[in-house]
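*** Protein under study ***
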Amino acid sequence: MAVAGAGASRDKRPNVVLLVADDLGIGDVGCYGNTTIKTPNIDRLAKEGARLTHHLAASSMCTPSRAALLTARYPVRYGLVGELNTPSVVVHVASRVGLPLSEITLATALAAANYTTAAVGKWHLGQGCKLGGRGCLGPRDHGFHSFYGLPFSLVEAFVGPHPFWIFPLDGSDPFYQVLVTVWVMVMAWALWARWRLSKIILYLILLAFPSSLCWFLHTHYRFHTQRWWQVSPWMDQHMNGIVMDNDRVTEQPVQLEGLSQRLVQRSVSFIDQHANDPNPFFLYHSFAHVHTPMFTAKDGSGRSVHGRYGDNVEEMDDGVGAILNALDRHKLADSTIVYFLSDNGGHLEALAEDGQREGGYNGLFKGGKAQGGSEGGIRVPGIYRWSGHIPAGVTLKTPTSLLDALPTILQLVGLPPLDHLMPHLPKRELDGMNIADLLTDGKDLPSRSFLHHCGRDIHAVRLVFEQLVYKMHLVRYKWSPGSTQCGWGNEEGCSCFDVEDHGHLPQLFDISSDPYEDRPIPQNSSKYFQVTGVMKQFLAEWRARVPYPPSQFKSKLDTMHSLWLQPFLSRS
């Protein structure tokens, strides 16, 4: 039996662990050059694996970037991107938008190969709740056997308290004065008409329902504003600020202090539970850090010279260390592929009310989160470790992408490509590339192109040809003077739709020799015409070949918060 067990262990496919940071800037990590924020565990991954220095997110926003990571396809292919006058990410737990069931995720593929799969932490890809808040499968609709964490994301409103009862009569919003006026007029009419008391009470009861409904919709929804998808801080905190264990709500509202530790402990428990299983496991651990609002456990507050933001990065690094230690404890380091990444670049504009900066640092790359074509918004940390298979301590400068995760991991674990693994499903074109040979042997990748979307629009194109990398900017952002950001504040950021169109005469950079885009190639040079001509032709062929469906967020009924779909904490 011992010999048979050893043989089964040798034949077992490697485990897979994805560690996803939220809004972490590439300049915030020690192994990418930071000398003032302590990230020893992430740095350890880089020493024991391959550090990618030209690693790109498929989007500069959470929802579309995470969708691309799991599907290897641009989310614009299935409408999970914003349009003008719509949100750019999933904005409610109780809504109908999200990752379509027709899309195949990495978890779906690995589950088909008998992997035990779990998602822990932030999901933010739609929960798929049914009437009465039932059947909120979320990740379990997409190949994960279990889920624990935030079905939504983090927003500033999660820090409270926020009042439910709001009825200002100071004139700041005439709606409330009109509502009071209606009630006064009804009472005056009743007194003038000398109605009986029973009749007055009946009319007041009949009036109470529509007036209460009007008050609730006006106070806690924002249908009457340009940002029609938003809700009040109280609604955000109590409806979106929840933690779920599979389809059961366990915290409502979420308790931020200690959240990182609770999420990490769930992942550690998952590893402990499945370390010796005959089948391998896939763990997708998505940190809540370092998205605003900033929070840490009491013993982690004030540890960093960079204030709350530095505290958050270091607390996240502690979580990485705890998960790596769990793998070590079970002697799984050699049989587990670990992939660490950030979903997009740092949020440069993030600034707390007390003046503390709460956004990341993107090194010398220009721009940040919410800027689809800016290098700072899409150049992210990326580290692969698989001891004994991926050489330790190597740095790879070849352009790669989060889109590459699915085909790469299938190759690394010894599974066939997606279409062969799941031949019963319709064939689909993947936008990611298999980079397994690059990671394991340093082999060059074939030439490729990257599209950098902001919403449904293409803001930049990147062409990789042999050792050359060119990037063509089709728009310019309206940065604040002397900066590469748009204002200050946790709710601030550059807009995809308030840009200057330069598609007729785009800017071109040679990223291989000018990674920080300081020297645009002269627009009257032969190189400019040659390279932009190739890239424009590629762009025209792409647009003719790949039609984009409308944004899912275009439907107000699907996007809005729907109370009838809301899951609630069970008090039983």
